[in-house]
Each structure stands twice: as C-alpha cells, then as structure tokens.
Amino acid sequence: MQRSLSSFPFAPAVKVRLIHAGFHATADLCDFRPLQLSKAENKLTALELLEREQTLGTIVTFCSELDCVLGGGVPVGKTSEICGVPGLAVDVQIPLCFGGLGGQVVYIDTEGSFLVQRIVDMAKSAVDHCSLLAEDTEQREALKEFTVETILSNLFLFRCHDYVELLAEIYLLPNFLAQHPEVRLVVIDSIASPFRHGFEDLSYRTRLLSGLAQRLIQMATQQSVAVCSPPAYVVL
C-alpha cells in the first residue's frame, strides 16, 4: 500500500517542495536518487512559477484596498486565513466578464454557524453591484445567469460535527473536486473548532492539525482551488 508523503515527519517546507515537484506517495520516489530528487525539486524557474500562479487567477472581493493588498484578490492554489463574513463564497462566483472566476464553492461548516439568509443577502448585493457595473452585451447576458438562485445552487455545504468527520471530509474532498471541476474555493469554518476540546494527548492533536494543514496545501495545489479558513487558534 502506498504511503502519502504528507504522513512522514518531514519538515513542512520539504513536504511542500516535494508536492510542488509532483511527488505525493512513496512509490513516486522509488526510481529517484537524492541528486535526481534535488534537481526535480527545483525544476521550475521563478518565472514559470509566477506564470502558473497568474494562470490560476484570484478571487476578487470588490474591495479595492483589500484586492490591492492581496495582489488582485484571494489567490487560487494556496491556503489563506481570513476573518469576517463568508463573502468569498459569493465573490468566487462573479462572472469572468466582471473580473471574477465564475466558479463554485465548497463550504465546510464545523461550528453550525452557517446562515443561509446571510448568503442570500450577500448574493443580492453582489448581483445588484454587478448590475450597476454592466456596460456591454456580454456583461448583460452574464447577469441572466448570475442570480441569487444560481449563487445558492453553486454553493455545496458540508456539516462536520467533530474532528473525525472533518478529517474524513478533507480526505474525500479531492474526489468531489474532481467531479466538480468548476469549484475554485473551499471554505472551512473553522479548522480549529473541532480540535478545541476532547484531547488528552496534545501532541496527538498537534500531529493531526499538522497533517490536516499539509493535506490542504496539497489539495489547493493539485486541485487549483483557494482554501480559506478563519485563523486556527486552538485553546490549550
């Protein structure tokens, strides 16, 4: 049985470099010597990496100052920690002709705090804002499909009640993303909540959180999605 490289006690930076180089399981390393691995690990130039990140795009927030600070929006293919209401779940669906990604979103609720009415309110605001911006035929046609109903139908909600369910969901999520290639954002609200209580062995909790972080980084890279969550503060 192949063992995932994320399960080994490598330094996080090493794991990230191996994953970026295309190595995900022990079988991927069998035919490589250390020198070959070193070369494979550095096979991308900085320019190639920049071009790849630019191709993936960003999720615009329509907050000019925030988009400017983020270099155009929330980056796809990376993980981010964000505080505030779940507006990105709507922003990621903004049509391409308005500068958005026209994507879908997976929302994993671990706190039971998801309020559909809040999403409805933000969806209405986004639709109204785009309506005011529409200047040409392409944008006016896009607005016919950019409605509150389509925004809600493009948001896939998963409820996890404890850390076991969260870990299982993250493990299965790549298959779901493969079946829904339009998903460009995964929101986890929040990662920390299921890990705050019920752990006598804190080192075990730390290992679980570390493994979860590595899996999310791998998923963001491989599936070309933005992974966002509130800051993962855990009460000791």
CATH class of the largest domain: Alpha Beta
Which outline best applies? globular
Pairing-aware structural class of the strands and helices?
A: alpha/beta
Main sheet: strands, sense, barrel: 5 strands, parallel
Q: Please give the domain count.
A: 2
| Biggest β-sheet: strands ordered side by side in the sheet | 3-7-6-4-5
- Helical content, roughly? 40-55%
Order of helices and strands: HHHEHEEHEHHHEHEHE
The percentage of residues in β strands lies in: 5-15%
List low-confidence stretches. Answer: none
Rg over alpha carbons: 19 Å
Going by CATH, what is the homologous superfamily of the largest domain?
P-loop containing nucleotide triphosphate hydrolases
Protein name: DNA repair protein RAD51 homolog 3
Subcellular location: Nucleus
Pfam families: Rad51
Keywords: ATP-binding, DNA damage, DNA repair, Nucleotide-binding, Nucleus
